[in-house]
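We give the chain.
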Amino acid sequence: MSGRIAASISSLVLLAPMIALSQTALTELVSTEPQPIQNLAQSSTQAQSPTPEPPQTPLPGASGATVIDPNQPILRQSPRIMGVLPNFTAVDSNTQLPRLTTREKFVVAMHDSVDYSSFLLVAALAGKGLYSNAMPSLGTGPAGYGRYYWREFADQASGTFFTEAIYPTLTHEDPRYYTLGKNGWFKRTTYAITRTVITKNDRGTNEFNLSEIGGNASEAALSNLYYPASERGFANTATNFATQTVITAVANVLKEFWPDIRKGLFHGKNK
């Protein structure tokens, strides 16, 4: 089994415990009801607010968000999962965002590709490949590590740009993940998994997720240009495509339940 597949399985093992926790975490929802009007004296007393938190980098298109159903609560996402993993494309439940322009789709892909956590993940995967000698032809030592590293980074960056920028621009699809946030964990899990084959388009309606399927296939095919001969061919390309698709499905489940995990385990606030 190739180093890329072993690295992907390692990623699944890391994500699996969090998915299990999300199934039992209690969902504490935020009420969308307006607060009662305060009198002038109370307003002046409450005007002194705590020191504001440092601003987060907003996702393109996040301004102008609208609530779909005022009678339904909202589950809030955060820019990062566990304070590390980028979660820039996750959208709050019961929320509709304006369509992304072509430029904004490429900005989204750039955010995910050059985020510091991406470099750390690539470094870890390259180290694992070197340690296990997954591809002997790449060599050992610092030079071998460099060969593993740039190939892992090329996989990560090309896959991100294919699925979040290039294909969404061509197909007019939305690369963001819209949180369901209701109907129980089973339906939410099913919804998250099916987002690998179903997505919103720029008009806000659902369609076949050609961006994800086509993007993963393109990334797998492109890797044949820079991996050793032993890692090329139809079988390896198909395995790479299937692995990337499974990882996307697992990541979607994690995104769907992250507000519950954050609220239940880390007492995160739905601000």
About this structure: The two ends are 45 Å apart (CA to CA). Confidence is low (pLDDT under 50) at residues 1-57. Strands lie at 66-67, 80-81, 85-86, 90-91, 95-96, 177-178, 198-200, 206-208. The chain has eight helices and eight strands.
